[in-house]
Amino acid sequence: MATSQITTLSDRCVRCSTELAPHTLACPACATLVHSDKLNELASAAESAQTTGDRVRAKELWESTLRFLPPDSEQHATIGARVIELTNEIDSALPASARPSQHAPWWRRGIAGIVAVFFLLLGKLKFLLLGLTKASTLFSMFAYIGWYWTMYRWPLAVGLVLAIYIHEMGHVWMLRRLGIASGAPLFVPGLGAFVMLKQHVDDPATDARIGLAGPVWGLGAALAALAVYAYSHAMLWLAIAQLTAFLNLFNLTPFWQLDGSRGMHALSRAERWAVVVTLGIAWYLTQNTILLIVGAVAVWRAVQREVGPGNQRVLATFVVLIAALSWLAKDLPHHAR
Fold first, then answer.
1. What does the pLDDT look like over 101-151, one tens digit per residue?
2. How far apart are CA 81 and CA 83, in angstroms?
3. CA 327 to CA 324: how far, in whole Å?
4. How far is Cα 316 from Cα 55, in angstroms, rounded to an integer?
5. Contact 220, 122 (CB under 8 A)
6. Direct distance between the N- and C-terminal alpha carbons of the chain, in angstroms, rounded to an integer
7. Three-state SS string across 152-185, please?
8. Among residues 94, 165, 176, 277, which is most buried (max CB within 10 A)?
């Protein structure tokens, strides 16, 4: 996706004459928006498009305004929410043939979404390379490779770090799709990697979509490594596929800031117990010890007083992720010896 540079219209603020640094979006002294004329023009066009019922055009215009607003501003948050609302309206207005059938089994909708993301990874190479242009991401990634290198051979260390990077870029991709500002992925040796959000997300379903996007892309990375192994029969690729699946499965633990916790936010009590049952079945079939840990925390979340509003799409994604990642990681102890 092509990007465009945002340039200032003037070297000084039109209201208080404060000197502005290049690419400044708001005056640091009086908070006047530098691109107010452009914003008014885009907002007017977007409102006109909404009035005429052209939601797709309105969404595109509102998304354009986000480039000219400070990510931590109230206007950015308000317009970001409007973009999400329009996206939901557009999806609900699609004909039945153009969207997943509401009468199809929930597990089939989850599988369809994850398979789509697997192929999406193949067409998102340009987007994946974008994160590597950030110095903070690149340097912290090298430090993380060095940390893994102490435990594994360097090819496996590099493969694992790239798989973790793909996981984090899954979060970034979803954040951009939702019009939510964020930083680039940052690796912390010994702890993992994270993406810093620049605004708060209040909606449980939106937070769940952001959280589970990482494991979905991580599953895509694991499946891609497995495909290379099937073609080359090189055990290195099987190890990368299984370790990637294991790390993403651990990330589904519904605790603290892990992705599983964010996914669990949107689930009702019954849906949370469905996740617990899925974890129990997955453990019975694979005997993977990590599932006992994830399952124990999921039980704790299921009995809590506060639960989410319920979301079948999130539940479907959660269940299919557990099944697929458990299957990929089931022979990890055997191959690790």
1. 445 554 455 445 445 445 555 555 555 555 555 555 555 555 556 666 666
2. 5
3. 5
4. 28
5. no
6. 43
7. CCHHHHHHHHHHHHHHHHHHHHHHHHCCCCECCC
8. 165
